[in-house]
Amino acid sequence: MKKTLLPFTLAAGTLILAANLSADEIRCKNGALVVGEISAIDGGVVTVKTSNTESDETKIKQSEVLSISRDAALNVRTSSGATLQGPVAASQTPGEIVVGGTSVAISDVTSSWLLDGKSPEEREAEKFNYAVEYEVGATLTGTTGNTESVTGGAYAQTVIKNAVNALKLYLKYNYGKTRDDDADVWTKSADNLHAGFDWTSEFHKPWFWYARTDAGFDRVQNIEFFDVSAAGFGLKILNEDDWHFSVRGGLSYRYERYKHYVGDTWDPKDDTNTIGLDFGLSHDYAWSWGKIVTEISYVPGLDDINHYYVVHETYLQMQVKDVEQLYFRIGMKNEYRSPKTAEENLDTTYYAQLVFAWK
Question: What is the value of pTM for the model shown?
Fold first, then answer.
């Protein structure tokens, strides 16, 4: 049994020893030794990945580094503009390293990157490479029996973004009718339009600026025209590939022009015209088969705390099998206005939607 385990024990020991030997070593002037994998030297900072966890990194000021050792080759750029390639070894002269057989002072190193990686200039240029994403969707629902109703809707959205900025442009329209059995009359249950933009710009990771506008009308709510505009800053609490969570806050301007029927004539009500605050929350989580998204916006007035506007929307999106760009979305949206503009303050919409997305 011992003879059988011996080759595996030796193999495991060899792998552990090889892993330790291949690790990069950074010796500091204060005597500290940092062991890991150098991921970057840029802006006077040496970044060392010390475990398999992507966020587990150690940053060392370049001025505090005494020597660097790395068996795997690197690209190393110096202050003269020259780019050296090769393994990195400690020099007999303190404060110097040997890159591919060439000695260079650590203070002269301006940047480094992996042989198959991208240079700082290439990474910086990528920040300004914009990608464009498009979505169009359609909704059609109906009921029959005790109540007859039909509701349809359509929307279009474009997102233009890069590593720093994102601009979303959208247009949404919904229309619906419900039949009154007693009077045998169809009445409108939905007739609203939303059009606007939402812009964000990351100024100091994870902080960002934002500005947004949402305008349109809601004839069932007796709103001839509305506009909510806001600007401020936000924080990206989570920003992973499959999980995002952010909050934001700022100042807002809200305008609503109301009308309602008195007999056969329009009778204007007092308009809402107020400066206020703006608070928002955005969360999404993705799986291999779909994602769930939640957006919440709260806009209270500064002149009167009883004047506010709340919007909440949550939906689950799933990819249609064997159709890469087609998605099925089910969700709900709540809008709450104060003061109320119709018989009810709260307007809740449940929907099922087909979405076609492409880049």
Answer: 0.68
